Amino acid sequence: MMTKEDFQNLWNLNYPNTVPISHLFKHDYSDRWFRIHSLPASKRYAENENEWEILLSRQNEIITDLLGLETPIVTVTGEYNWGDNRQIHVTDEEEIFKSFSFVRLDKIQLNKIDAEQYDEPNIYSPAFAQTIWKPNYHDKLLREIANDNTRAFFVSFDKNIIVAPYDGGVDFILKDNQTRDNYKEKYKQWLSEREDGL
Predict the structure, then answer these.
(1) Whole-structure pTM value
(2) 71 bridge partner residues
(3) How far apart are CA 89 and CA 163, in angstroms?
């Protein structure tokens, strides 16, 4: 069973330049980052079952390719608290997280990360749960993320990979830029046409 201290040590060892908040990864590890879009023509949201099938098929295919089958991973989520002290955590409230056994991490003071964007009372409260990756096992969670109903990302410390789905696609942080370039080439049909890769 991974403890809070185990997670923090592994995180600091593998990702010392960032904190476990997924929208920061593409900036903090831009040399190892790439993004795929979940739907053709960079469409953001699935509107019917056919589009959901494409979205989940793409996400499961590339994540399985990167992580492998039955791979131990850690699911990380959290919530923002804007100045109030919430007693209930998102992992206890949201149905999608009920099957996981979450461990709370230390709260992150957002103004220490970005003083321009955040005021002092703004806190992010992350939590993690150990699980495995196998195709379609996390489809309910992937759907909730794709609908922008929740946020979470997966990390394999063994493989040094972060998988961060969002409403529109998936961000990846791979172990080095060569590995990143190989996968970008392999999945070039799913990349953004924008120069910045977003």
Answers:
(1) 0.94
(2) 133
(3) 23
CA distance 40 to 135: 21
Beta partners for 101?
none
Closest CA to 25 of 193, 160, 194, 179: 160
Q: Which of 57, 76, 82 is nearest to 18 (CA)?
A: 76
DSSP 26: H
DSSP at 23: G
Q: Are 179 and 156 in contact (CB under 8 A)?
A: no
pLDDT at 87 over 80: no
Tens of pLDDT, residues 30-60: 999 999 999 999 999 999 999 999 999 999 9
What are the residue boundaries of the structural domains of the chain, listed by start?
A: 4-78+127-190
Nearest one of 142, 139, 168 to 43, comparing CA atoms: 168
Angle (CA) 144-148-152 rounded to 5° is 65
Q: Which amino acid is at 51?
A: E
The model's pLDDT over 142-189, given as tens digits with 9 standing for 90+, comes to: 999 999 999 999 999 999 999 999 999 999 999 999 999 999 999 999
Residue showing tokens 């959901």: 52
Distance separating alpha carbons of residues 158 and 161, to the nearest angstrom: 8
